[in-house]
Here is the input.
Amino acid sequence: MLNAQRIGTVSREFEVGEDGRALTTFVQSRWRTSGHFELDGQGYEIRARGFAGRYELLSAGGTVVAAADHVGRRHWSVRADGREYRFHRESLGGRAVSMVDSDDRVIGSVTAGRRGQVSADLPGMELRLRVFVVGAMLLQLRRKRAAAASAASSGG
Here is the structure.
């Protein structure tokens, strides 16, 4: 199980670990649209594209390694290396997402906690893609919190 936990109370940094050992640190940008991490000496950036929940995982050279579409919506997906990983949010306001196979059977899950943590059990997905899914979820949650705060402060 992959876990991302905020480092400190107001930090934009998250320790990402598995089975009790730290693997990387995911750092969100100031503007809620991107973040970066390093695995095995390779740098990666997660970048939002538009406002429709599209995220891309880019290598240090700027090559798109994976893309996620409609993150945060009821149905969304990740495409990488010629494969598609499909996700289904379990409830309208829920923070739990199931990874499903071609027959819509649940084969994995991603759960977001209330204090800026995300846990992911994504069998068959390589590590950089699992960190990408977790990072995209963290960025999407941050966007939602910022939108809710903005709406509350404007009275609507």
Summary: The longest helix spans residues 127-153. The chain has one helix and twelve strands. The first strand starts at residue 2 and ends at 6. The mean pLDDT is 88.
